[in-house]
Amino acid sequence: MKNVVIIGGGFGGVETFRRLHKQIHKGKFKVTLIDKNNYFLFTPMLHEVATGSISRTHLTLPLRQMVRCCSERFVMANVKKIDMKKNVVVTDEGDFSYDIGVIAVGSRSFDFG
């Protein structure tokens, strides 16, 4: 069984977890998802919340809830370092070793002020 660590609970991290989901149930992977937030935010619809068309609860998914079905692990932490020689992710909540590491930290919008 390969140990997979996914850094980032945004679109890239959640989609990676989703695509591994069937393989997790077959026992091929053990997954740890690490993010600084405990929720996935569906940003394309933020304007709907701003106009009051929908509630903000419609845009968020608790990451713990997503991984719970598979008895996988979610860790809310800030990543301090990735040691690629030792295959270890160092966070403020501890160190996590991996066979396969996925860096899916996303991006930050910049509107030029």
Jot down its keywords.
three-stranded antiparallel β-sheet; 35% strand; 113 residues; alpha/beta; four-stranded parallel β-sheet; single chain; 3 helices
Largest sheet: 4 strands, parallel
Oligomer: single chain
| Portion in strands | 35-45%
The strands making up the biggest β-sheet line up spatially as 5-2-1-9
Overall pLDDT level? 89
Based on Cα principal axes, name the global outline: globular
N-to-C SSE series? Answer: EHEEHEHEEEEE
Radius of gyration: 15 Å
Task: Give the structural class.
Answer: alpha/beta
**How helix-rich are the residues, as a percent range?**
10-25%
Number of strands: 9
**Helical stretch tally:** 3
Low-confidence stretches: none
Euclidean distance between termini CA atoms: 48 Å
